[in-house]
């Protein structure tokens, strides 16, 4: 089987904020639908705080949760103690289920470690500056190229307009 693609998926405010008090600082119904479409059937890698904020495993996809201490006793959750361990588990799950992509879905500490391992990023740029306590690492234009950009006006259940951008890693 070919290489497994490693994709970071995140929604990021203009000032880099991705979370506040264990939640997202916005309501973006249209982005949640996109997130589900992008991740369904694929292994998702997340930190324990992100898992706790969701409150349960994401249905329809293998969940790999990184935690240094806490164990989550759930049949749909694989535990890992490091990002490297989580990526190995997610790649194994991807091969077992016949998919060619794993999705890294947060939070801030996981994104900061994973940005160097990812091949692609699907970023929803939220067109607002917001207060928060979790942020996304800077996207270095020398390393990442925007391959696709779609402006998304705020829908009926969205607090802000967004710009959906797919970034591909530039190869030296």
Features:
single chain, 172 residues, alpha/beta, Dihydrofolate Reductase, subunit A, eight-stranded mixed beta sheet, two-stranded antiparallel sheet, 23% helix, DHFR_dom, NADP
Walk me through the structure.
With 172 residues, this protein is an alpha/beta fold. It has a single domain (3-167), classed as Dihydrofolate Reductase, subunit A (3-Layer(aba) Sandwich). It has helices at residues 29-39, 48-54, 83-97, 108-114; strands spanning 5-13, 17-19, 44-47, 63-66, 77-80, 101-104, 120-126, 134-135, 144-152, 162-169. The protein has an 8-stranded mixed beta sheet with strand order 5-4-3-6-1-7-10-9, with helices on both faces. A two-stranded antiparallel ribbon has the order 2-8. The longest helix has 15 residues, at 83-97. The model has no long low-confidence stretch (mean pLDDT 95).
